Amino acid sequence: MSISDSIFAIKERIKNSALRVGRNPDDIKLVAVTKAVGIDKIKEAMDAGLRIFGENRVQEALKKVTSDALRVTPPIPPLDKGGIEWHLIGHLQKNKAKYAVELFDLIHTVDSIPLADELDKQAKKTGKTQRILIQAKLSEEEAKHGADEKELLPLLERIGSLTNLKLEGLMTMPPFFDDPEMARPYFRRLREIRDAVNSSLVTRHSLLELSMGMSHDFEIAVEEGATMVRIGSAIFANGS
Ligand SMILES: *Cc1c(COP(=O)(O)O)cnc(C)c1O
After folding, report:
1. Is the distance from the beta carbon of residue 173 to the nearest atom of ligand 1 less than 6 Å?
2. How far does residue 232's CA lie from ligand 1's centre (Å)?
3. At what angle are helices 113-126 and 149-160 packed, to 10 degrees?
4. Is the pLDDT assigned to residue 240 strictly greater than 80?
5. How many domains does the chain have?
6. In the structure, what pLDDT confidence band is assigned to residue 77 with cuts at 50, 70 and 90?
7. Distance from C-alpha of 7 to C-alpha of 50, rounded to nearest angstrom
């Protein structure tokens, strides 16, 4: 399948999943994950209509964000993204916060108070309001990044006091299961947490976004309320 055929097929699947549970398919954004994907293929995805791209690492994103090939509008210096949104979906180290603030429209992976503080500090320097999500870790896995449930409340409270951060929602990455149905409880839990936060007064922000679901489980995530699905291999792995 070509990249544009894959994108078409994925959009159909998102739409059908949304309609199954009475959601509006327009409420779900497709974030094309372009880690290890070259400029040419990203350009194909752009030409097929995608506008939001997700990268795992600051370093790799730099050459893509600044690529002349990857823009739909004429450049406006200094770091114009040409009508494209770039999202950071991988773990962020504090010492790269400065670059992340320069490059990314939305950072999905804020998971600690020190990182939030550093992002706010860097955003202040350039007068930017940095859009972020909190990455929640809802499983017991040792290796995963993310704030666990008991860390969420203090993190939410802190972010609420940081004036250059705009918290827009939550992100999670369940453990990998062969059967995607097994991921459902994690997606559901993230939605419940978001709804609980919104009905409390923990933060001045109203959380709308749920970033959840990848190539093998995005349909379940959409059924459970995802507003952003992060899809890489299903778009690019067998693209022409
Ligand atoms: C790689 C990655 C994805 C996309 O995974 P696919 O299985 O290729 O769709 C989504 N989210 C994160 C955080 C990733 O690292």
Report:
1. yes
2. 6
3. 20
4. no
5. 1
6. low
7. 9
